[in-house]
Amino acid sequence: MRAEPQIRSFSLRPAPGQARLVPEPYPATPVWGFNGQVPGPELRVRQGDRLRIVVTNGLDEETTVHWHGLRLPNAMDGVPHLTQKPIAPGETFTYEFDAIDAGTFWYHPHQRSFEQVGRGLAGPLIIDETNPPRVDRDVTWLLDDWRLTQDAAIADDFGASMDMSHAGRLGNTVTINGRVPDVFVVRQGERIRLRLINAANARIFALDFGDLSARIIALDGQPITPHAAPDGVVVLGPAMRADIMLDCPADPGTTLQIVDRAYRDNEFNLLDVVFDDTPLRAAPPEWEIALPANPLVEPDLNAARRHEILFTGGMMGAMVERQMGLSQSGSMMGGMMGGVVGGGMWFVNGVAAEGHMLDPFLTLERDASHVLHMTNATAFDHPIHLHGHSFRVISRDGVRTEFREWQDTVLIAPREQVEIALVADNPGDWMFHCHILEHQAAGMMGVIRVA
Length: 451
Ligand code: C2O
Ligand code: CU
Description:
By secondary structure, the chain is mainly beta. The chain has helices spanning 113-116, 161-165, 317-323, 330-335, 437-441; strands spanning 7-12, 14-19, 29-34, 43-46, 50-56, 66-68, 92-98, 103-108, 123-128, 137-146, 173-176, 183-186, 191-198, 205-208, 213-219, 222-228, 233-236, 241-247, 255-260, 268-275, 305-313, 346-348, 362-364, 369-376, 382-386, 391-396, 399-400, 406-407, 409-412, 417-423, 428-434, 445-450. The longest helix is centred in the C-terminal third of the chain and has 7 residues, at 317-323.
């Protein structure tokens, strides 16, 4: 007989507050945070537990909380107007769901998220395996990107059309766990499970671990065959996560660097990794690093139904569409030329979603296998996220992926085509959108129904 799940209770209160993002002599930054913190508190439970989270809205606008990457009942997904009424100022909503997958997840509002997340509302949600692999330290880094003024205030230009139509709201200040990082002290021989969460509105990270040994053991919370990060670089689009087994081989006193290489003309040193004077052990431990599998259902590619999804729009979109031979698509017809009401600049199968987009553009038969073939006919990268499910990334530009990774958010490069596969086993209406939050706000979203 199965025991009743252990209930783990939390409360979250999004509200305006202050955070010291940049060190003295800069002043503290007015932010919006959960429980007065940026990022919000790390919610941590064990796989199989039931979470009960009471959210009280301390903002003076409506909000919700979405549990990014979790496979949970539709009514708990935190999407305003689609899965729940938004939480009015001063009101409370209780979320309750079981932690069926172990892994690294996060939470954030889904109401006007380009501003609410951009002002600091985001936090880690960690679900521990029953038997996690042995490590010396388990460390979470929530990466964020801020557009700050001279006096460390958040620039008040949310929704600028330049950001909407280009690469999103890129900032000028990167933080780890709400602070501009300085040094990360490690010991020779130490093994660290590093959980990376990209909570930025728009910034892509490509972290080069250099002479540290970085092996990827999970992406978007889901275990993957452990493998060295390609060229030592871990790429994370907005909303994506990676669990890294970090081995620290250098001598005491050494300083190494972790460098961000995502933007060619703007590489920067994220932080210094300083080796403490006392070594822990001469060589990295030989402990097992693979994670136990989560209970995901394997899609049957032979029986899968295929669906085409085309992304168009944005600056220079018409040019890319012409080059790809897609001159009939949405942005040419209805968008750039037709003049769009409501600021729609990005299109999913020809439609730029406006306001509360409740009608599904695609229905997936429940419990069947499906392949979504996605084409990015734009000049920009898009991290595409499906709620309520994890999917396997099976091909890129027609080439089978090596690891067939499970993801909930897949980064698609300009002109790239990506196939993902899943069993649609979670009924309901689910958001499907770009996680560059300015793109989402400018139309790049839709609803996929599983029924
Ligand atoms: Cu991170 Cu629609 O969500
Ligand atoms: Cu996008």
